[in-house]
Every structure is written in structure tokens, then in C-alpha cells.
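Input sequence (468 aa), recorded before submission:
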Amino acid sequence: MPSRIKIRVILLICLTTVILGQTPMTLDDCFDAALENSPSVQAAQERLAQARAKVIQARGAFLPSMSASAAYVRLDTEPYVSMGDMTEMLNELLGGLIPPDTTSQYQDEEEQRLKMGEDENYDVTLSATQPIFTGFGILSGYRMASLGMKAERINFDSAREDLLYSVENAYWQHIKALGFLQVAKKSHQQVKAHVEDLVALEGQGMASHNNVLAARVRESEMKLTVLRAKQGVTLSRLALATLIGIPVESIDIEEQVFEKSSPFEDADEALNTARTANTDIKKLDIAWRIADAGVTAAASPLYPSAMVIGSWHYKKPNRELENEWYDSWDITAALNLNVFDWGITIGKIKDAKAVKRELEANRNLAINALDLRVKGAYSTYVEAVAGEEVADEQVKLAEENFRVTTELFNNSAATSTTLLDAQSDLLRAEVNLLSARADRAIARAELIRLTGGYIKYFSNRQSGQEEK
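Predicted structure, C-alpha cell format:
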């Protein structure tokens, strides 16, 4: 079964289970769906196909080209030579040595004609042209086409990298929105229950009306928070559905928790990996090699070009001007040298060299920028890991504070306002933890993208398909 069909079958099974609500989508499921349905990836894949076709074209320039032609010519009359005109011409050339009676007998006899061919002529020709040397022009063209195909393959990887990073970012934003909605709902239920308790206490004269009003205000705030959280979930789900190309109603996400350890031991290891695996640097390396081949191609007119042309003919009439078919052949060896073109070739060479030097400078700039981005991404990831640990500790403290405050309130040792404040502190702590987890995952995704980590995912995915 072809790999594309396998992917569609897997995707169909995945979508079916999602729609039925049996199996939530993991991050890898989102990756698979996005790679299968993304228009940007499909466009990059078609550009790669175009580059492959150009390699085929460039390879064909090394081989002989074949052509065939057929011609039919119909003349208004048969070609002839008048004997009178011919005799007069010979007489003039020979200085009048031909007797007059010999020439006069053709002067008034137009029917005296010498037939020189037929009024119907046929010509069938097969030709083959083989280039021998083109000043390295064909070789440079093939090299540029091959490098262009490699460049498009890197662009294809880059398009998939950008897509997977966007998907992972949207995935964690959706996880964050879902978590915030859950926390908001839980907090709303807690505040609602607290309002009910205060109303009961107010009826017993144990709580003031102001405390009830303050609690109801807080309940209204939590209702608004829940509504905003629902809107955030809707928007994040829509963004994720758009990226992975499936109906928004089918989005059901399963959160994955990655290890907090860094993919790299230190920033230097991440930097070294990025310099060899980053697709932006690979693009510039390939572009420089293409420009180098372009210099050779621009200089090709300085060298002579040679080719051999062989032809086979099948004609009518034949060499004896008889109305019969005959065949013949010929071989031509041609040599051409551009002697002077007013500096056009020199100008093209200078232009190609300037492009090459520009790419060298751009590559150095890109490496410097990459160094800065990788170091920043690594620092952001380390900071995000530390921030998550702090947020986790904050949640534990807020939970303990809310527990203690609830006990104090039940024992009339704490006010309703104090309890609501403790509940708000717990809500903020839980939201901060959700944000910290998502930020750590997004920071990790950025570090993976800069160091070519998604390409390993492509390779593993392809290997898994081949095994199947």
C-alpha cells in the first residue's frame, strides 16, 4: 500500500475515533493531520517536484537530441534549362567559337528544354545532435539544477518545521485555555457554594448583608471569567483546527506532559547542533553552492563549444533526377567560439561573483543571528522550567492557605472577604501554573525548531511508515 494511502487511512481512523469521542488527539496526532492537510506543505512538495523535473531536463542536455522532419514541395512546373540560353552562354564564354547555325537552331524552339527535376519533391530527415563541449555550461546547469532540488528539499523541511511549530504552539495554547476554563469553573462553583452558605448564615443572623453582596459580586466576576474562558477555548480550538485541517467540532485534545529536563546539556551543545541542522543555514549553504555554479556557467562563453550533427535523408527524386526514392546521410562537426560580445560575458561573471560574495556575507549574518536566537531560546527554556517549579510551589502554598482559611471561616475565625481572597489567590496560582507549563512546552518547541529537531520527527515518521 502506498505511503500516502496509509497516511490517509490512519488519519481516517484517527478522525473517526475523535468524532465518536473514543480517543482524544495527542500532539503526534495533530502533527500527522497537519502534515497531511496543510496547503503550505502541499505547495512546498509541488515545488520539490518541479525541482526534480528541472534535474531531468538538465540531465537530458548531456544526451544527444533527436529530431525528425518531413517536407513536400509542389512546383508550378518542372525545373528545366533552355538549350538555347545555354548555347548562347557557352558561345559567349568561348568567344564565338560555336558555329552560328548551332546556336540558331535553339533560338526559337522553346520546347527544347533540359529537364532538371520533378515538380513534386519529397524529403524525410532524421537528425541527431550530440554536444561534445560547451565550456562547462551544460555541466554547470546540471549542477545548479541538482542543488536547486536540494534547496527545495530543505524548503520542504522548513515548511514542515514551521507548520509543526505552529501546531505545537496552538496545541499548548489550547491546553492552556482548557485548563483555565476548568479552573474558572471550579472557582465559580466554590464561590457559588460560598454565596449559598452566606445566604444561609444571613438568615440566621450570623452574616451581614454586605458580606452576601460582596460574595455575589465575586460570583458575577467568576461568571464573566468563565464566559471569557469559554471564548478562549473556542478561539484556540478554531486556530488548532485550521492548522491541522480538520473540523473544529472534531477537536478533542489529550494533554501530554514532557520531561522538564532540557534536550541539551548546555547552550553550547544546542548552538553546535543548530549550526549543522538549522534549515535556514542549510538554505544559505545551498544558495552559495548554486551561486558558485553560476559563476562557472557565466564564464562558459569564454570557451569554445563543439558538437556533432548526424542526419539521414530519404528523398524523392533521386540524385539522377529520376522520380525515385533514395536515402543518404551526412555528419557535421561544428566548433563555435564567441570572439567578442562587448563585455557581456565579463559583466555576467562579475555579477555572479558579486552574488556569491553577498551570500557569504548573508550566511555570516545568519549564523550570528542564529547564535543569538539559540542562546535566547535555551535561556528562555531554562527560565520556563524554573518558573514552572515556582508556580507549582505557589499552587501548593495557595491550596494550603485556602484550606486553612476555609477552616478558620467555618470556625468564625476568618471573614468572608478573607476566604474569597484566598480563593482568588488559589485561582491565580493555578492559572500561573497552567501558563508556566504551556510556556515551558512552547519554549522547548522553539529550541527544537532552531536545532532541527522536527526533522528527526519526519525521519522517524517515515521509518515507521516503511516498516508498516
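Checked by second reader. The first strand starts at residue 65 and ends at 74.
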